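Escalated from tier 1: flavin mononucleotide holo job.
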Amino acid sequence: MQDHSVQTFDPKAFRAALGTFATGVTVITAVGQDGKSIGLTANSFNSVSLDPPLVLWSLAKKAFNLQDFVAAKHWAVHILSADQEQMSNQFARGGAEKFAGVEPVSSEHGVPLLQNCAARFECTSTFQYEGGDHIIFVGEVKKFERNDHPPLVFHAGKYALASLKDNDFSPPRATGTEPPTFRSDMLGYMVGRARKNFLDSMRVHLESNGLNDYEWRLLTIILTKKNLTASMFERFNKDAALETILATLESLRQKGWIEMVSDEGLGEPTYTLSQKGVYDSVRLLAIAKSHEEHLMEKMGYADGMLLKSLLNKFIQKTEGSSPNLWSDEFVLKEKAAQ
Ligand SMILES: Cc1cc2nc3c(=O)[nH]c(=O)nc-3n(C[C@H](O)[C@H](O)[C@H](O)COP(=O)(O)O)c2cc1C
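Tier 2 regenerated the structure:
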């Protein structure tokens, strides 16, 4: 642990140390002295007392609306939900555009109340204290609301998602003495198993459309990327031999999902979706999406978001040198290589 004594007190390091304390994110709103709505993003919010119900937050003395908040008799605290990052950014920006596109309702005291937050507290401003370069506001909660949206988290200067720590689901850690097994915390095993579970329950929809797993895999690629040749699939998809790819493409063609277009420049045909293919694949994608939502519900909305965000990060960070079929450069490079 790095030691920062008062003599070497570096404001940047101080901020970074404070940032290790993960908080939620709130937007505080009130009515200014001229009757206009005012608000700002604040993570200094905290609970103070249950009886009476008191909460606090602090406002920088240089804040544009300092005098308005000092004069306000009422304000509201909105605990933002995980999908309100954009709202947090909007209220953290200086200027008059904070309420642009936001449709608040008015409290009985005229305080603008924002919708779809994880929780909301309507308060009367009770005490104000000097706090260095901030003023600390304490308010008594007169009304509150809560819904089950997961909260937005702020940690180390960045937004984060909260995932409830559940030891039942921690992967078993291999001990130093135990030989590694497939059942320990091997990522490859978990990713493969997750993919299997996903496909197992999706398969019934594929089969009722006359498709097997691999045909669906190739279709989703063709749906995203036009004009691919069988050898481009092979170079990208190292899990199947060219003969398997050709046989699968031919089967899809015979079933009317795709069309083969000859390309003299490339020296081999490219594949595109037929009209039926476009229509039916989009329909299947919609089924896949609702299937995904059904599976996500099993682990909870917040964990589902977290899983997707971490998987996306994993994909981006590990892309390495393997060809990225989804980038436009891929087809161009492949063409140039012919
Ligand atoms: C996550 C986050 C938390 C913040 N917390 C506070 C806070 O607790 N107090 C504060 O005065 N400013 C805080 N800010 C900065 C203000 O939101 C920002 O300076 C805002 O523009 C102030 O409003 P004003 O421009 O009307 O003065 C925070 C910003 C972010 C992004």
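The chain has two domains: 6-161, 187-337.
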